[in-house]
Amino acid sequence: MTDSTASRVRAASAKRRRLTAAAAEVVHRQGAERTTIADIARAAGVPVGNVYYYFKTKDELVAAALDEHARHLAELTGRLERLPDPRERLKGLVETWIGQRDVAARWGCPTGTLAAELDKRGEGGLDAEAGRVIRLLLDWAERQFRELGLPEPDGLALTLVSAYQGMSLLANALRDPEIMKREGDRLLGWLGSLPG
Fold this sequence. Notes:
Blueprint: H1 3-30, H2 37-44, H3 48-54, H4 58-80, H5 86-99, H6 101-107, H7 110-119, H8 126-147, H9 153-174, H10 178-193
């Protein structure tokens, strides 16, 4: 590969990455239905016509936004995995949620709100992709509870993620970030009280 070819490949990869990141941000703030390809192009600093080279439809951009949410989740859980204790990993997750309370109060959970919106479209499409990202979180939390040796780790993971989705929804609906703080502190107390 020549230097100029390598440079073009790097530039194209960087442009695709900007579009993906912009899609995740814009779709989170506006919702999938209200977001246009032009909105995403503008946020990425890419001419609208260039978007079609990377993504043929808005749904492809929404799928890329979901992939971006999955990537962010993988980065977060990867950092948390460095903690030696699974209880501390779970607490770190909750503390991250609390730290994002202003964003949640304004726009809700990026994946949860998108999953609810996409579900109205019907079965088997992007709604299933949103569910896949939430499943990644559930599976990670379940592994932590299992490592603690607790019974029914799948149920405990469901309780934790359900609490997060609920507090995100309420913080957003009421535009009150302190709901995330109060309920997050309650989750931290619950995690601390579990045996193991």
